[in-house]
TrEMBL record:
Pfam families recorded: RNase_PH, RNase_PH_C
Record's keyword annotation contains S-adenosyl-L-methionine: no
Keyword set includes rRNA processing: yes
UniProt subcellular location: Cytoplasm; Nucleus, Nucleolus
Family: Belongs to the RNase PH family.
UniProt-listed GO biological process terms: exonucleolytic trimming to generate mature 3'-end of 5.8S rRNA from tricistronic rRNA transcript (SSU-rRNA, 5.8S rRNA, LSU-rRNA); nuclear mRNA surveillance; nuclear polyadenylation-dependent rRNA catabolic process; rRNA catabolic process; TRAMP-dependent tRNA surveillance pathway; U1 snRNA 3'-end processing; U4 snRNA 3'-end processing; U5 snRNA 3'-end processing
GO CC terms in record: cytoplasmic exosome (RNase complex); nuclear exosome (RNase complex); nucleolus
Keywords in alphabetical order: Acetylation, Cytoplasm, Exosome, Nucleus, RNA-binding, rRNA processing
Protein name from the UniProt record: Exosome complex component RRP43
CDD domains: RNase_PH_RRP43
A GO molecular-function descriptor: mRNA 3'-UTR AU-rich region binding
All residue ranges annotated as the Exoribonuclease phosphorolytic domain in the record: 31-170, 197-260
Length: 280
């Protein structure tokens, strides 16, 4: 009977749980799903990437691979490298997605990631320059969703940050006599990461009630969503709200406060995993 009710009247089914301050999966309204991250060689799957990470938020599973290549800087940005993020939502991750060119949701997610990189200054493009006007690094950041069950943005930002922290770039110099670049694969340095942005997403129910880390079903039933991105200093990097129910100043501040707390949890998790894989 409960399954039939959930199928026929999903919103009313959810409301009955929300009245008791809980959700059908047993979580409280402010409770995140179990979060795990595997970094680099723990994955044993992206051997060609210069940095990689796999993040799971409940069932939502996202993998990020970072590939570093050399290129000439743009004429109007002689001292800057490039960062090219791309989010893929293949048909295998959920029935709602189709094979072919990137859909609207994938494009929006890619733009969101690009904005987070820019606004947070997690990587300063000047740090990617090797020789002004001659040579710079290009970081291709491919984020692929393997299993979609809501809250793609939180998982994507987390996977991106973890993968970037795993990147080791070889020493590159330019031979003054020949003008050619020389790569020393034996001498590698970690990527300089200036800030550590973390995304925290909320779904809005009936225009007033906020729940964190929504599942795909909860996103479909919600009257709106909002994603808050903060860094380790508690600085607000981005507020992403694609339409839906408006939020009062007090509600938005509540979201920001919770996002700052969530940041500490995610940063602690990344640091713990990196420590465990770092050679002693």
């Amino acid at each position: 009977l409960s399954i039939c009710f959930r199928t026929v009247e999903p919103l009313e089914y959810y409301r009955r749980f929300l009245k008791e301050n809980c959700r059908p999966d047993g979580r409280e309204l402010g409770e995140f799903r179990t979060t795990t991250v595997n970094i680099g060689k723990c994955l044993c799957s992206i051997t060609t990437a210069d940095g990689s990470a796999l993040v799971k938020l409940g069932n939502t599973t996202v993998i990020c691979g970072v590939k570093a290549e050399l290129a000439a800087p743009a004429a109007d940005s002689a001292n800057k490298g490039y960062i090219v993020p791309n989010v893929e939502l293949p048909s295998l991750c959920a029935e709602r997605f189709r094979s072919g060119p990137p859909g609207e949701e994938a494009q929006a997610a890619s733009q969101f990631i690009a904005d987070v990189i820019e606004n947070s200054q997690m990587i300063v493009k000047d740090d990617l320059c090797i020789a002004s006007g001659k040579l710079a690094w290009v970081l291709y950041c491919d984020i692929i969703c393997l299993d979609y069950d809501g809250n793609l943005l939180d998982a994507s930002v987390f996977a991106l940050l973890a993968a970037l922290k795993n990147v080791q770039l070889p020493l590159v110099t330019i031979n003054e006599e020949t003008g050619l670049s020389e790569v020393n694969l034996k001498q590698k340095n970690p990527l300089i990461i200036r800030k550590h942005p973390v995304a925290t997403s909320f779904a809005v129910f009936d225009d007033t009630l906020l729940i964190v880390d929504p599942t795909a079903e909860e996103e479909d039933l919600a009257t709106g969503t909002v994603t808050i991105v903060t860094d380790e200093e508690g600085r607000l990097c981005s507020v992403h709200k694609p339409g839906g129910s408006p939020l009062t100043g007090a509600k938005l501040q509540d979201c920001i406060t919770r996002a700052i707390t969530r940041h500490k949890e995610v940063k602690k998790l990344i640091d713990k995993v990196i420590k465990s894989i770092t050679p002693k």
